[in-house]
């Protein structure tokens, strides 16, 4: 018999994750490389703890629905449209620092998916499964919590940047939540890692821009809206077909 999923693992996992991200290691350690290695090590240990804690549940089980992965693939390279509209320069790259950043942000994506798309979303649906629109409400709530979690970056970003990040995190969360419900958690994890690495780490390390054009912003907004519309259409079409097959 599978262990019933509750909100308690979500709450303590979220607190531990936020603690790892916000702990001021720089007050005690002057090396950025060592701080990244510490965070990487803690996140790896934390991930295996979550997997062990949920060892009676196959958290990576699910159906294959490859068509849902398309908007994530496109969104993972949406920032690069800025190259068409703005002047830019290539940055000098510290290879070791770049590798550490890729590993760190891949682990962040992995753990965020387990926390928000498994521990919370599954818990919510399991607890309120008899209520109407439980899946849709679960998608919105998990995406909202995922978005609010990014407010911890307020310590390093300005107010406008935080708002923008929270907005696209909410949109990304909707796409990832639908992928989780109608496909596999591993698909959501891979998509989130792609987004973090290509649209985040590599983009920031490779390029410097003097300004951001309105065309670039408009294109990114359109990609976000179209991605959400696309996954919702697939979501409802798939669910309708499943109901028809049952009847």
Explain what this protein looks like in three dimensions:
With 247 residues, the protein is mainly alpha-helical. It has one domain (8-246). 69% of the residues lie in helices and 2% in strands. The protein has helices at residues 8-22, 32-53, 70-75, 95-127, 134-149, 159-182, 185-206, 214-246, and strands spanning 88-90, 207-209. A two-stranded antiparallel ribbon has the order 1-2. α4 (95-127) packs antiparallel against α5 (134-149). The longest helix is centred in the middle third of the chain and has 33 residues, at 95-127. It is globular. 27% of the residues are buried.
Biggest sheet architecture:
2 strands, antiparallel
The helix/strand series, from N terminus to C terminus, equals HHHEHHHHEH
Question: How many distinct helices?
Answer: 8
Total beta strands: 2
Distance between the termini: 28 Å
Main sheet strand line-up: 1-2
Structural class determined from secondary elements: mainly alpha
State the domain count. 1
Strand percentage lies at: under 5%
Protein traits:
247 residues; two-stranded antiparallel sheet; 2% strand
Topology:
Blueprint: H1 8-22, H2 32-53, H3 70-75, E1 88-90, H4 95-127, H5 134-149, H6 159-182, H7 185-206, E2 207-209, H8 214-246
Antiparallel strand pairs: 1-2
Helix pairs in contact: 1-2, 1-4, 2-4, 4-5, 4-7, 5-6, 6-7, 6-8
């Amino acid at each position: 018999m599978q262990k019933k999923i509750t909100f308690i693992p979500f709450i303590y996992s979220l607190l531990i994750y936020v603690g790892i991200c916000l702990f001021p290691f720089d007050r005690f350690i002057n090396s950025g490389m060592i701080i990244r290695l510490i965070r990487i090590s803690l996140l790896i240990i934390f991930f295996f703890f979550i997997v062990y804690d949920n060892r009676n549940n196959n958290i990576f089980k699910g159906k294959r629905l490859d068509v849902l992965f398309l908007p994530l693939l496109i969104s993972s390279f949406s920032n690069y449209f800025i190259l068409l509209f703005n002047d830019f320069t290539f940055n000098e790259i510290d290879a070791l620092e770049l590798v550490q950043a890729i590993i760190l942000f891949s682990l962040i994506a992995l753990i965020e998916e387990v926390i928000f798309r498994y521990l919370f979303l599954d818990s919510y649906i399991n607890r309120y499964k008899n209520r109407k629109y439980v899946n849709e409400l679960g998608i919105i709530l998990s995406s909202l919590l995922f978005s609010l979690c990014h407010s911890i970056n307020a310590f390093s970003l300005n107010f406008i940047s935080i708002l923008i990040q929270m907005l696209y995190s909410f949109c990304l969360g909707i796409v990832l939540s639908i992928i989780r419900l109608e496909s596999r958690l591993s698909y959501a994890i891979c998509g989130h890692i792609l987004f973090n690495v290509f649209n985040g780490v590599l983009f920031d390390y490779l390029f410097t821009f003097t300004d951001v054009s309105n065309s670039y912003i408009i294109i990114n907004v359109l990609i976000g809206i179209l991605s959400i519309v696309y996954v919702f259409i697939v979501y409802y079409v798939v669910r309708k077909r499943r109901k028809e097959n049952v009847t």
